[in-house]
Amino acid sequence: MIRRLERRYPRGNHASTLPWPSAWLLALALGAGIALPAASIAQPVDTQAAAGVADEAPAALAPFVARYTVSDNGRSLGDATLRLVPQGPRWRVDLTMNGSGLFRIAGINAEQSTLFEDRGETYRPLTQATVRRTVFTQRKSVGTYDWRSRLARWQGDVKEHRRAPVALIDGDMSGLLINLAVIRDAAPGRTLQYRYVDSGRVREHRYVVARELEPVTVGELKYNAMRVSRIEDAQGDETVIWVAKGVPTPIRMLQREGGKDTYDLRLTEYQGVQ
Protein backbone atom coordinates (compact mmCIF):
# COMPACT_ATOMS: atom_id res chain seq x y z
CA MET A 1 0.00 0.00 0.00
CA ILE A 2 1.22 3.49 -0.90
CA ARG A 3 0.60 6.49 1.34
CA ARG A 4 0.87 9.70 -0.67
CA LEU A 5 1.00 13.13 0.95
CA GLU A 6 0.48 16.47 -0.75
CA ARG A 7 3.58 18.67 -0.89
CA ARG A 8 2.90 22.12 0.54
CA TYR A 9 6.30 23.63 1.02
CA PRO A 10 7.42 26.78 -0.82
CA ARG A 11 10.21 26.77 -3.33
CA GLY A 12 11.62 30.19 -2.68
CA ASN A 13 14.71 31.76 -4.19
CA HIS A 14 17.84 29.67 -3.73
CA ALA A 15 21.25 31.18 -2.99
CA SER A 16 24.29 29.26 -4.18
CA THR A 17 25.96 29.94 -0.82
CA LEU A 18 23.33 28.01 1.14
CA PRO A 19 24.90 24.92 2.73
CA TRP A 20 23.71 21.46 1.71
CA PRO A 21 23.30 19.70 5.06
CA SER A 22 24.69 16.34 4.00
CA ALA A 23 26.64 15.66 7.19
CA TRP A 24 23.61 16.07 9.43
CA LEU A 25 21.17 14.38 7.09
CA LEU A 26 23.37 11.34 6.64
CA ALA A 27 23.64 10.83 10.37
CA LEU A 28 20.46 12.63 11.44
CA ALA A 29 22.05 12.97 14.83
CA LEU A 30 25.31 14.34 16.24
CA GLY A 31 26.64 14.35 19.74
CA ALA A 32 29.66 13.97 22.01
CA GLY A 33 30.51 12.10 25.17
CA ILE A 34 31.91 8.93 26.68
CA ALA A 35 31.04 5.45 25.49
CA LEU A 36 27.89 3.86 26.94
CA PRO A 37 26.22 0.57 26.00
CA ALA A 38 23.04 0.78 23.98
CA ALA A 39 19.92 0.58 26.14
CA SER A 40 16.30 1.68 26.35
CA ILE A 41 15.41 2.95 29.84
CA ALA A 42 11.66 2.96 30.47
CA GLN A 43 10.18 5.71 32.63
CA PRO A 44 6.76 5.64 34.35
CA VAL A 45 3.88 6.84 32.18
CA ASP A 46 0.59 7.97 33.67
CA THR A 47 -1.64 8.71 30.68
CA GLN A 48 -3.89 6.00 29.27
CA ALA A 49 -2.95 6.73 25.66
CA ALA A 50 0.75 6.55 26.46
CA ALA A 51 0.33 3.24 28.27
CA GLY A 52 -1.38 1.76 25.24
CA VAL A 53 1.58 2.60 23.01
CA ALA A 54 4.19 1.48 25.52
CA ASP A 55 2.59 -1.94 26.09
CA GLU A 56 2.67 -2.98 22.45
CA ALA A 57 5.50 -5.15 21.18
CA PRO A 58 7.80 -3.51 18.60
CA ALA A 59 6.86 -4.28 15.01
CA ALA A 60 9.18 -6.59 13.07
CA LEU A 61 11.34 -5.06 10.37
CA ALA A 62 9.62 -4.84 6.99
CA PRO A 63 10.96 -3.33 3.76
CA PHE A 64 9.76 0.15 2.77
CA VAL A 65 10.56 3.21 0.67
CA ALA A 66 9.92 6.67 2.14
CA ARG A 67 10.32 10.05 0.45
CA TYR A 68 10.80 13.44 2.08
CA THR A 69 11.04 17.10 1.18
CA VAL A 70 14.14 18.82 2.56
CA SER A 71 14.09 22.51 3.49
CA ASP A 72 16.23 25.01 5.36
CA ASN A 73 14.23 27.65 7.27
CA GLY A 74 11.43 27.35 4.71
CA ARG A 75 13.67 27.31 1.61
CA SER A 76 13.45 24.12 -0.43
CA LEU A 77 16.77 22.30 -0.80
CA GLY A 78 15.55 19.18 -2.54
CA ASP A 79 14.31 15.74 -1.54
CA ALA A 80 15.49 12.65 0.28
CA THR A 81 14.64 8.95 0.01
CA LEU A 82 15.01 6.42 2.83
CA ARG A 83 14.87 2.71 1.95
CA LEU A 84 14.97 -0.48 3.97
CA VAL A 85 15.59 -3.60 1.89
CA PRO A 86 16.27 -7.26 2.82
CA GLN A 87 19.61 -8.78 1.84
CA GLY A 88 19.06 -12.49 2.52
CA PRO A 89 19.21 -12.90 6.31
CA ARG A 90 20.53 -9.35 6.60
CA TRP A 91 19.14 -5.88 5.89
CA ARG A 92 20.34 -2.70 4.21
CA VAL A 93 19.17 0.84 4.95
CA ASP A 94 19.89 3.56 2.37
CA LEU A 95 19.54 7.33 2.50
CA THR A 96 19.77 9.31 -0.75
CA MET A 97 19.55 13.09 -1.09
CA ASN A 98 19.12 15.14 -4.26
CA GLY A 99 19.33 18.90 -4.53
CA SER A 100 16.79 21.00 -6.42
CA GLY A 101 17.10 24.34 -8.19
CA LEU A 102 20.67 25.63 -7.99
CA PHE A 103 21.53 22.69 -5.78
CA ARG A 104 20.63 20.30 -8.60
CA ILE A 105 22.55 22.36 -11.16
CA ALA A 106 25.59 22.17 -8.90
CA GLY A 107 25.22 18.41 -8.79
CA ILE A 108 25.04 18.31 -5.00
CA ASN A 109 23.85 15.00 -3.64
CA ALA A 110 24.76 12.42 -1.05
CA GLU A 111 24.17 8.75 -0.37
CA GLN A 112 24.77 6.49 2.61
CA SER A 113 24.10 2.77 3.10
CA THR A 114 24.50 0.48 6.09
CA LEU A 115 24.36 -3.31 5.85
CA PHE A 116 23.28 -4.81 9.16
CA GLU A 117 21.86 -7.74 11.12
CA ASP A 118 18.69 -7.61 13.19
CA ARG A 119 19.85 -8.92 16.59
CA GLY A 120 16.53 -8.40 18.37
CA GLU A 121 17.52 -5.80 20.97
CA THR A 122 19.84 -3.99 18.60
CA TYR A 123 20.72 -3.64 14.93
CA ARG A 124 24.32 -4.72 14.39
CA PRO A 125 26.13 -2.83 11.59
CA LEU A 126 28.42 -4.80 9.27
CA THR A 127 29.51 -2.37 6.55
CA GLN A 128 28.86 1.24 5.66
CA ALA A 129 29.39 3.24 2.48
CA THR A 130 29.07 7.00 2.03
CA VAL A 131 29.28 9.05 -1.17
CA ARG A 132 29.05 12.85 -1.38
CA ARG A 133 29.08 14.51 -4.80
CA THR A 134 29.18 18.03 -6.18
CA VAL A 135 29.71 19.15 -9.76
CA PHE A 136 33.47 19.31 -9.10
CA THR A 137 34.14 16.67 -6.44
CA GLN A 138 33.22 13.22 -5.27
CA ARG A 139 34.13 11.90 -1.84
CA LYS A 140 33.74 8.25 -0.85
CA SER A 141 34.32 6.37 2.38
CA VAL A 142 33.78 2.76 3.41
CA GLY A 143 33.49 1.45 6.95
CA THR A 144 33.76 -2.13 8.19
CA TYR A 145 32.43 -3.29 11.56
CA ASP A 146 34.44 -6.44 12.38
CA TRP A 147 32.66 -8.08 15.30
CA ARG A 148 35.22 -10.89 15.58
CA SER A 149 38.04 -8.48 16.32
CA ARG A 150 35.63 -5.96 17.88
CA LEU A 151 37.06 -3.17 15.75
CA ALA A 152 35.53 -0.76 13.21
CA ARG A 153 37.64 0.91 10.54
CA TRP A 154 37.01 3.52 7.82
CA GLN A 155 38.98 4.14 4.65
CA GLY A 156 38.73 6.42 1.64
CA ASP A 157 37.99 10.13 1.98
CA VAL A 158 38.16 10.16 5.77
CA LYS A 159 40.11 12.58 7.94
CA GLU A 160 43.37 11.10 9.16
CA HIS A 161 42.41 11.10 12.84
CA ARG A 162 39.21 9.15 12.02
CA ARG A 163 41.07 6.28 10.33
CA ALA A 164 42.22 4.78 13.60
CA PRO A 165 40.37 1.58 14.60
CA VAL A 166 37.39 2.10 16.88
CA ALA A 167 36.77 -0.49 19.60
CA LEU A 168 33.26 -1.96 19.33
CA ILE A 169 30.95 -2.94 22.16
CA ASP A 170 27.60 -4.69 21.97
CA GLY A 171 24.87 -2.29 20.89
CA ASP A 172 27.01 0.04 18.76
CA MET A 173 25.11 1.41 15.76
CA SER A 174 25.55 3.78 12.83
CA GLY A 175 23.47 6.94 12.55
CA LEU A 176 21.00 5.37 10.12
CA LEU A 177 20.51 2.38 12.41
CA ILE A 178 19.87 4.62 15.40
CA ASN A 179 17.02 6.21 13.44
CA LEU A 180 15.48 2.74 12.93
CA ALA A 181 16.03 1.94 16.60
CA VAL A 182 14.18 5.10 17.65
CA ILE A 183 11.19 3.98 15.56
CA ARG A 184 11.32 0.56 17.25
CA ASP A 185 11.91 1.72 20.84
CA ALA A 186 9.97 4.97 21.19
CA ALA A 187 7.13 5.01 23.72
CA PRO A 188 5.72 8.02 25.60
CA GLY A 189 7.81 8.99 28.61
CA ARG A 190 10.72 6.73 27.71
CA THR A 191 14.41 7.67 27.59
CA LEU A 192 16.46 6.03 24.84
CA GLN A 193 20.23 5.78 24.96
CA TYR A 194 22.53 4.49 22.22
CA ARG A 195 26.20 4.53 21.31
CA TYR A 196 26.82 6.08 17.89
CA VAL A 197 29.83 4.64 15.98
CA ASP A 198 29.93 6.18 12.52
CA SER A 199 32.62 7.52 10.15
CA GLY A 200 35.36 7.09 12.73
CA ARG A 201 33.45 8.88 15.49
CA VAL A 202 32.09 7.57 18.78
CA ARG A 203 29.38 9.54 20.54
CA GLU A 204 26.67 9.11 23.11
CA HIS A 205 23.11 9.62 21.91
CA ARG A 206 20.34 10.16 24.43
CA TYR A 207 16.74 10.77 23.36
CA VAL A 208 13.72 11.71 25.44
CA VAL A 209 10.21 10.82 24.27
CA ALA A 210 7.46 13.26 25.29
CA ARG A 211 4.85 11.83 27.67
CA GLU A 212 1.92 13.08 25.60
CA LEU A 213 1.15 12.36 21.96
CA GLU A 214 0.77 15.41 19.74
CA PRO A 215 -1.04 15.97 16.43
CA VAL A 216 1.22 16.21 13.40
CA THR A 217 -0.12 17.05 9.94
CA VAL A 218 1.85 16.05 6.86
CA GLY A 219 0.14 16.84 3.60
CA GLU A 220 -3.44 15.63 3.86
CA LEU A 221 -2.83 13.10 6.62
CA LYS A 222 -2.88 13.67 10.37
CA TYR A 223 -1.16 11.57 12.99
CA ASN A 224 -1.00 11.36 16.76
CA ALA A 225 2.77 11.23 16.96
CA MET A 226 5.46 10.85 19.59
CA ARG A 227 7.96 13.70 19.78
CA VAL A 228 11.47 12.31 20.32
CA SER A 229 14.11 14.93 21.17
CA ARG A 230 17.87 14.95 21.63
CA ILE A 231 19.73 17.98 22.97
CA GLU A 232 23.13 17.98 21.34
CA ASP A 233 25.18 20.58 23.21
CA ALA A 234 25.15 23.47 25.68
CA GLN A 235 24.07 25.90 22.93
CA GLY A 236 20.74 24.09 22.70
CA ASP A 237 21.22 22.45 19.29
CA GLU A 238 18.54 19.80 19.04
CA THR A 239 17.36 16.96 16.81
CA VAL A 240 13.62 16.21 16.91
CA ILE A 241 12.03 13.12 15.34
CA TRP A 242 8.26 12.56 15.17
CA VAL A 243 7.23 8.89 15.23
CA ALA A 244 3.69 7.59 14.57
CA LYS A 245 2.22 4.18 15.30
CA GLY A 246 2.03 1.99 12.19
CA VAL A 247 4.41 4.15 10.13
CA PRO A 248 7.83 2.45 9.65
CA THR A 249 9.71 5.70 9.05
CA PRO A 250 9.81 9.10 10.80
CA ILE A 251 6.92 11.47 10.00
CA ARG A 252 9.20 14.47 10.35
CA MET A 253 12.85 15.11 11.26
CA LEU A 254 13.97 18.56 12.36
CA GLN A 255 17.33 20.08 13.25
CA ARG A 256 17.24 23.10 15.58
CA GLU A 257 20.30 25.30 16.12
CA GLY A 258 20.41 27.98 18.80
CA GLY A 259 16.68 27.56 19.38
CA LYS A 260 15.79 28.12 15.71
CA ASP A 261 14.53 25.61 13.15
CA THR A 262 17.03 24.83 10.39
CA TYR A 263 17.05 21.62 8.33
CA ASP A 264 13.64 20.01 8.10
CA LEU A 265 12.61 16.71 6.47
CA ARG A 266 8.90 16.05 6.03
CA LEU A 267 7.41 12.80 4.81
CA THR A 268 5.56 13.01 1.51
CA GLU A 269 5.11 9.31 0.69
CA TYR A 270 5.90 5.87 2.02
CA GLN A 271 5.38 2.45 0.49
CA GLY A 272 5.71 -1.06 1.85
CA VAL A 273 7.68 -3.31 -0.47
CA GLN A 274 6.77 -6.96 -0.95
Whole-number total of structural domains: 1
% residues in beta strands? over 45%
What's the total number of strands? 17
SSE sequence, one letter per element: EHEHEEEHEEEEEHEEEEEEE
How would you describe the shape? globular
Compute the CA-based radius of gyration: 18 Å
Low-confidence stretches: 1-54
What characterizes the major β-sheet?
Answer: 17 strands, antiparallel
Termini gap: 10 Å
State the helix count: 4
Mean pLDDT over the full residue set: 78
Determine the fraction of residues in helical runs and give it as a percent range. Answer: 10-25%
The helix-and-strand class reads mainly beta
Explained architecture:
With 274 residues, the chain is mainly beta. It has one domain. It has four helices and 17 strands. It has helices at residues 22-27, 48-55, 102-105, 175-185, and strands at residues 2-4, 39-41, 64-72, 75-87, 90-99, 109-118, 123-133, 138-146, 151-156, 166-167, 191-198, 201-209, 214-218, 221-231, 238-244, 252-257, 260-272. It has a 17-stranded antiparallel β-sheet that branches. Strand 7 and strand 8 form a beta hairpin. It is globular and about 45 Å long. Mean pLDDT is 78; it is low at 1-54.
